[in-house]
Amino acid sequence: MRGGTRSFAADRKERTAELDRWLTGLFRAACAVPYAATEAMPYAEAVPNVAVRNMAEAVPTAATAEAEAVPYAVAGGGRRAAVPGHGRGGVALMAVGSLGRGEPAPGSDLDLVLLHDGQDGIARLADALWYPVWDSGVGLDHSVRTVHEAVNVAQEDLKAVLGLIQARHIAGDPNLTKAVREAVLADWRADSRRRLAELREAADHRAAAAGGELAFLLEPDLKDARGGLRDVQAMQAVAAAWVASAPGPRVREAHELLLDVRHCLHVVTSRVTSRGADRLVLQEQDAVAEALGLLDAEALMRRLAEAGRTVGHALEATWRTVDRVLHGPVPRGRRPLADGVVEHGGEVVLARGVDPRKDPTLVLRAAAAAAEAGLPLAHATTVLLAGEAPPLPVPWPERARDALVALLGAGRAAVPVWEELDQAGLLVRIIPDWERVRHRPQRNPIHRFTVDRHLVETAVGAASFTREVGRPDLLLIAALLHDIGKGWPGDHSAVGEVVVRDIGTRMGLPPADVETLAAVVRLHLLLPETATRRDLDDPVTVSRVAEAVGTREVLDLLAALAVADGNATGPAAWNSWKASLVADLVRRVRAVLAGAPPKPAPSLPPEAAALARHGGCAVRVRGGAVTVVAQDRQGLLWRAAGVLAAHRLLVRAATAASAGDTAVIEFAVAPEYGSPPDPATLEADLRLALAGRLDIERRLAAKARYARPSRVPVAPPKVTLVDDASATATVVEVRAHDRPGLLWRIGRAFGESALDVRAARVETLGAEAVDVFYVVDRTGRPITNEAQRSQIRDQVLTALR
């Protein structure tokens, strides 16, 4: 998990000691004299990232501090007995939070509690203690309480009790700190049923607010996301309640990595802010990786994903233990689930007398049984299997393939079982190639998951289509392996085909099935890319797809995989618009494979036909859908797109098509910021623009003066003229960073080149636009002259700069 990363554990230990010494000096000085008399002391000096600039001068040595400590209350109070070696009795300074745990980061705030026994003058002592901390520039969260008050607060405030459970004595009377800790821990253990339920609910809400699982977030919150530092603290709190064991060595290793990443993030972000950040944003990831001694941001995010999943997996196991301990005994009988596998105590374990050393298929059988029963695979069982189960023979026995298919076919219930196998190191023994994609980040806003988890999620989605295809087994295996090529350089579809041939052969699939599996992996992007980037009314489009897939069986597998893959990728990659286009393409290809010639779509969709019957220009705005029906003429698309941009609307998707002399453009839009514009005003402006009575360019120029520049560097745009994609038009594919007015700029460039857009497919994937246009010249023909083709490419690129 850590690999060759630098460790900052020694830095945390040293910083803890420095802060302890500094705070001890402040405490003793505050006990001796009122703050007003200490203004000339060096404690008030503001210091970045450390408590004081010159720790040797500002923090008294132990001997000096003890000599300076005066056993009297702050001016105006009564005499108090001194505590040997600690200064004044009846008062103590206690650290909670990161300093209490001994893990402060460079930009961490201080969380301090001043404990007292009810004596007079405590407010003046507190002021004398807190003001130098504030003046130093270090963030401070503080409270002043008696032991009784601290215990009462902990009984009702979850944040307070979690801090006090791990509180640490800094200075003063250690008996006060001891009394608080003992009382708080006793209450925590006595009321564990209620408090742990509260802790679990709070942990779930916190993780949801932070965006979900740290392992899969593009910009993870290191503290609050699921699998982050707060979850380690939650497990430590459960252990303090004597309900579950303390986190084991793998969790401790993951915890150290998270602390190290946070340390480096604080160092990096302190260059622009005095406080450390906890969200690892994209622009900081390379710098943090360098500080940790890693190659690049991808290596960093891969280590983080592994650490986050380790912590998240351990937390789930902890909650299961809490449920068993606090919610009554589970029936202890043994219920058979599969050969050598039983349910026992709500978990799946091996049957008595089973020797895992003699059964190489037992791992997959136990996993399949657990997933099909919707039960967790016992951790002790996976540890036993990892230590004793022999490797699968090559080729696999049929029993092993059947178990893998059964595991994947269990749908959502397969995910925790798969994760258990992964954490135990069993997956890479079953499929060695899995190591290449394990925890591999995708680092873009399109994908919700790492590569390996995306593959599992795709298999989960594919499980719902097993009744719709002739070979459900191949569908599930293809779903699990369709992106396996991302573990190697090159086109992942082409590389994946090679890898999956080897895996399929090792699995013992017949040669014909291996070929089908390889074809599905090679072509898994064919349907969604064609549906969104090609004109489905062009006969060449459908014929090419039919030729590529070859058989109805492969088409059905690809259709199911496209839906499962899209849903597993995320909403930026899959929506109802794309789903309808893919379904339309599949229907057309299916007809061609059945022997029918390619058929054009109906002349106009029903809604567009209804609008067109009114004659002239028709516009309809419904939420995020904008439909324009007008007489087909040059510049229609870009004029409409310009109006949308002028109204702060980003085009997320669009289709443009012609039927006779009528053009239909359908946009899916979202406001760039704020609320969407008034539909009536938008419709009116669209009609004015299409009638040539609205100066779009002036509107957009005025808007551009206030546009915010992009903060993140982007790759240069790319314009490609695709050969042989259509017999009747030239296909131009434009890839660029999405920005307001992008479609307007591209369309205007076509207009300046005297080109007419016959059809278009516009798609936005996260922050990237992939737009495809079918263009013809003034005579309605494709552009074949090479010089003119180069001119088109240059014209569009110029418009995008």
From TrEMBL:
Positions of region (Uridylyltransferase): 1-336
EC annotation from Swiss-Prot or TrEMBL: 2.7.7.59, 3.1.4.-
Keywords: Hydrolase, Magnesium, Multifunctional enzyme, Nucleotidyltransferase, Repeat, Transferase
A GO molecular function held by the record: phosphoric diester hydrolase activity
This protein's record includes keyword Transit peptide: no
A matching Pfam family: ACT
Record note on domains: Has four distinct domains: an N-terminal nucleotidyltransferase (NT) domain responsible for UTase activity, a central HD domain that encodes UR activity, and two C-terminal ACT domains that seem to have a role in glutamine sensing.
HAMAP family: PII_uridylyl_transf
NCBIfam families with a match to the protein in the record: PRK03381.1
Name of the featured protein: Bifunctional uridylyltransferase/uridylyl-removing enzyme
Source species of the chain: Sinosporangium album
